[in-house]
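Z., the sequence and structure:
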Amino acid sequence: QVQLVESGGGLVQAGGSLRLSCAASGIIFSINTMGWYRQAPGKQRELVASITSGITTNYAESVKGRFTISRDNGKNTVYLQMNSLKPEDTAVYYCHAPRVFLGRDYWGQGTQVTVSS
């Protein structure tokens, strides 16, 4: 049974920082690309960042230079360090594991990030 459990969301003032964590189980974590998406009210879900098994990273233009994705294969956990947060970063953030065992994608339950101005 595949599970992705996010933590670390919350309320922060603009300019502040948060670190999101996603603990994965039921997958061969070390070989799976992992990602973070977000969805703001009234908007489509969008990719924030992804990291491959080979530690290649990809970021949305809007977060480059402010967010950092990383992974700890020993802990089956992927992280999203978010610095210099802006009100427009307010959204529900979802952990994503694409094509698990070359099959379907899996999503976490989401964690709310709210940035006040």
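The radius of gyration is 13 Å. The first strand starts at residue 3 and ends at 7.

Let me know what you think.
H.
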